[in-house]
């Protein structure tokens, strides 16, 4: 599934769920909100009527005056009003008055006069000096038939002598609730629709931008001349710039020069071994020793050919995610081969070599890379070991790893240089010549060790420098 469609689906799901929960929450609050506002109006009306009716109620002349006729006429009025576009053609308030015992003495509907309402909360609580209100269904089986009742006390010198109750059916409020819900649903649906439209446009724009970048990368990969896509800032612009810089580096001189240095650095070791053997062969020596040096020249020549072929692939060591092969490599045999390849150099400098590696100690990895990495370490140690100095090679098994140590007698490495030894192109001057190497050897060693899942560390110890490598 394309990224743009997945992005839009996630966005649509988020918008849909958000819209549903927000609308559902607001819809649930509309009906209680309207009823709360209506109840507040009923409280004001009931208290107003209590003050208006107080004198006649106190005098006991409510039914003798015009109040029954007035309330009946009030109930028959037709306001013909339009409230926010909704018609109102009848009044919906019911007003009744009870005495101090809860007996109805006046009712605008004319049906409850003489009845005992003392048990209804609007009357019962008001007579006790509390806020009296109730909501009761006129039809027990119809939830929409509930009527709100709010009572207010009639007082005489602070004493409650009666109650005025104003009632209003909730059904009279329903048209306004329905209209508000319809409008809210319409506006909510519109906003969700706009949100989805925005999400669709954003997904289309993102997909289009990524397609342009993909087309550019494919064009570069195919060797075509293509123009880098331009964006107006943001992460896409940074990504396009990074891809263009990567292309420049891959095609530029810096990339080629770096790996030419690597190639020449790796060829230096076998060339030095061949040259040392050739110099020794020019002098007189026993036939057996001469045959050994001729064999060294032959083996190192073959190794040079292998280096040229394999180092072309080593340019990708840093980018490789794993080894091409993983086999058991006898560490002792590998170290002896490396020492034998450097025998001429070791003999000419009269170095003392100490080796303590068990014959059955095995490494797990790619033989060619392991040979090159350990060979680089040995060559680097030889560069800094003075004449008649000491080389000490050892290894031991620690759980599932092998710890390889290479000690060479030398001056201590400066503290500022220790953390930078494996940096690319960083090198210290050699004691004999004062010249620096290409600075690629230890960097190559570190990359090979990391590729094998190991670690490399270099430290100063008493009398020299020690390299420690942990490998599977």
UniProtKB/TrEMBL annotation:
PROSITE patterns: HAMP (PS50885), HIS_KIN (PS50109). It catalyses: ATP + protein L-histidine = ADP + protein N-phospho-L-histidine. It comes from Pseudomonas azerbaijanorientalis. CDD domains: HAMP, HisKA, PDC1_HK_sensor. It is an enzyme of class 2 (transferase). Gene3D superfamilies: 1.10.287.130, 6.10.340.10, Histidine kinase-like ATPase, C-terminal domain, PAS domain. The chain crosses the membrane at residues 6-27, 184-206. Residues 204-255 form the HAMP domain. It comes from the Bacteria. It holds the Pfam family HATPase_c. GO terms for molecular function: protein histidine kinase activity. Residues 262-472 form the Histidine kinase domain. This is histidine kinase. It is found in: Membrane. Keywords: Kinase, Membrane, Phosphoprotein, Transferase, Transmembrane, Transmembrane helix, Two-component regulatory system. SUPFAM superfamilies: ATPase domain of HSP90 chaperone/DNA topoisomerase II/histidine kinase (SSF55874), Homodimeric domain of signal transducing histidine kinase (SSF47384), Sensory domain-like (SSF103190). Its EC number is 2.7.13.3.
């Amino acid at each position: 599934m394309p990224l743009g469609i997945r992005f839009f689906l996630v966005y649509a799901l988020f918008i849909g769920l958000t819209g549903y929960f927000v609308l559902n929450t607001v819809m649930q609050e509309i009906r209680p909100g309207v009823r709360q506002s209506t109840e507040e109006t009923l409280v004001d009306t009931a208290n107003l009527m209590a003050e208006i009716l107080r004198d006649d109620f106190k005098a006991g002349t409510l039914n003798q005056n015009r109040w029954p006729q007035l309330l009946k006429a009030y109930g028959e009025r037709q306001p013909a009003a339009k409230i926010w576009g909704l018609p109102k053609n009848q009044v919906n308030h019911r007003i009744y008055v009870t005495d101090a015992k809860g007996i109805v003495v006046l009712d605008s509907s004319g049906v409850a006069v003489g009845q005992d309402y003392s048990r209804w909360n609007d009357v019962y609580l008001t007579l006790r000096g509390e806020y009296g209100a109730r909501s009761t269904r006129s039809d027990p089986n119809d939830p929409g038939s509930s009527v709100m009742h709010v009572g207010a006390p009639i007082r005489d010198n602070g004493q409650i002598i009666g109650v005025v109750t104003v009632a209003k059916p909730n059904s009279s409020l329903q048209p306004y609730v329905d209209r508000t819900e319809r409008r809210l649903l319409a506006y909510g649906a519109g906003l969700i629709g706009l949100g989805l439209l925005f999400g669709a446009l954003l997904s289309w724009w993102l997909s289009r931008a990524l397609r342009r970048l993909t087309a550019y990368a494919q064009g570069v990969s195919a060797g075509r001349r293509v123009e880098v896509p331009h964006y107006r800032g943001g992460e896409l612009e940074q990504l396009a710039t990074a891809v263009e810089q990567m292309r420049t580096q891959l095609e530029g001189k810096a990339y080629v020069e770096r790996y030419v240095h690597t190639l020449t650095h790796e060829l230096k070791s076998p060339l030095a071994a061949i040259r040392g053997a050739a110099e020794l062969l020019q002098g007189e020596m026993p036939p057996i020793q001469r045959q050994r040096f001729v064999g060294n020249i032959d083996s190192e020549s073959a190794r040079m050919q292998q280096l040229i072929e394999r180092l072309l692939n080593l340019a990708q060591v840093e980018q490789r995610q794993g080894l091409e092969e993983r086999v058991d490599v006898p560490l002792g045999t590998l170290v002896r081969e490396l020492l034998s390849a450097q025998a001429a150099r070791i003999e000419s400098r009269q170095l003392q070599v100490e080796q303590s590696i068990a014959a059955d100690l095995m490494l797990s990895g790619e033989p060619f890379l392991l040979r090159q990495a350990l060979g680089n370490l040995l060559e680097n140690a030889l560069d800094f070991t003075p004449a008649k100095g000491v080389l000490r090679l050892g290894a031991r098994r620690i759980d599932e790893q092998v710890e390889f140590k290479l000690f060479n007698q030398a001056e201590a490495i400066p503290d500022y240089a220790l953390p930078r030894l494996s940096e690319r192109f960083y090198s210290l001057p050699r004691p004999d010549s004062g010249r620096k190497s290409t600075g690629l050897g230890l960097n190559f060693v570190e990359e090979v060790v990391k590729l094998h899942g190991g670690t490399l560390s270099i430290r100063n110890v008493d009398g020299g420098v020690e390299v420690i490598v942990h490998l599977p």
